[in-house]
Write a structure and sequence with these properties.
With about 290 residues, the chain is α+β, with helices and mostly antiparallel strands. It has 2 domains: about 160 residues, Ribosomal Protein S5, domain 2, CATH 3.30.230; about 120 residues, GHMP kinase, C-terminal domain (Alpha-Beta Plaits, 2-Layer Sandwich), CATH 3.30.70.890. About 35% of the residues lie in helices and about 30% in strands. The strands form 2 sheets. Strands 1, 2, 3, 4, 5, 6 and 8 form a 7-stranded mixed β-sheet that branches. It has a 4-stranded antiparallel β-sheet with strand order 9-10-7-11, with helices on one face. A hairpin with a 3-residue loop joins strand 5 and strand 6. It is globular and about 55 Å long.
Length: about 290
């Protein structure tokens, strides 16, 4: 069996406050994209979970979220003899702010739920995913969602599509942003900007919401982490400037970086931008929004 693992971008991301437990409350809009890794699995009946890759990874298998997801699902099933040979076709870059590892974990939960015939609901899979990472519950289902808390409090909305003809460009520079770099010095905005954003969306007409105007208008995109990341990672800041200079109607860093996305009015301008950006990137794709 095979399962696609769509990555995500953040259309809006604000840091509201630092909590007493050391985590931060966020307000963000998640959107899955039609780019990602692929997970394949065949069953075993000896309890072994074997994970291999299309190319060597720089970390132990046991620390991979795919492996952890398989173990967590087996524990939920209560059957230690459940096993699988899992193959991860890894395409998405590490340290990119695209949720690649979380997407892989979510895809593994969906895949093994079918392979092992567990018949767990999406909600049950999301609960398991929440113990693996803040982005995993959203990526179990995908589409478009408002997320709060550390990203685990989800409100799914009608999935967004880009307006006809528009193309999404995702670019990752030759850099990676450690999470601590992003959180160090990021302004804590309080709830006002996030609440105003949600109110503006909710007050739109049904037609506007269904087409996503209030979420996809150029003035609505925001990422608080740009303030803390750009001074320490000039390659990320430069990449955003290049994407705008090449004609994107909007460009924004995704998550805590390092990837930047741009939305172009048509494929020809997006393709021309991709050619110009290739020397500056370690990952580059032209794609669209993804939802079931």
């Amino acid at each position: 069996m095979k399962e696609f693992a769509p990555a995500k971008i953040n259309l809006f991301l604000d840091v509201i406050r630092k909590r007493e437990d050391g985590y931060h409350d966020l307000g963000t809009v998640f959107q899955t994209i039609d780019a990602g890794d692929t997970v394949t699995a065949t069953p075993r009946e000896d309890g072994t979970i074997n994970l291999t890759y299309n190319k060597p990874q720089e970390y132990p298998v046991e620390s991979d979220l795919v492996y952890k997801a398989a173990v967590a699902l087996r524990v939920k099933a209560g059957n230690p003899l459940l096993g699988a040979d899992i193959y991860l076709e890894k395409v998405m870059p590490l340290g990119a702010g695209l949720g690649g590892g979380s997407a892989d974990a979510a895809a593994t939960l969906r895949l093994l739920n079918r392979l092992w015939e567990l018949h767990l609901s999406p909600t049950e899979l999301e609960r398991i995913g929440a113990r693996l990472g803040a982005d995993v519950p959203f990526l179990v289902r995908g589409g478009t969602a408002f997320a709060e808390g550390i990203g685990e409090q989800l409100t799914f909305i009608d999935p967004l599509d880009l307006p006809a003809g528009e193309v999404l460009l995702i670019a990752t520079p030759h850099d990676a942003v450690p999470t601590k770099d992003a959180y160090a010095g990021v302004p804590k905005s309080g709830p006002d900007r996030w609440e105003a954003y949600k109110t503006a969306w909710a007050c739109g007409t049904d037609a506007e919401r269904s087409f996503g105007y209030s979420l996809l208008d150029s003035g609505s995109f925001f990422n608080a982490f740009e303030v803390s990341v750009f001074p320490k990672h000039p390659l990320v800041a430069s990449l955003k400037d290049k994407i705008l200079d090449l004609g994107a109607r909007v460009a924004l860093m995704s998550g805590s970086g390092a990837s930047v996305f741009g939305i172009f009015a048509d494929r020809s301008s997006a393709e021309a931008a991709a050619v110009a950006l290739e020397p500056y990137t370690r990952y580059l794709v032209l794609t669209k929004f993804w939802h079931n």
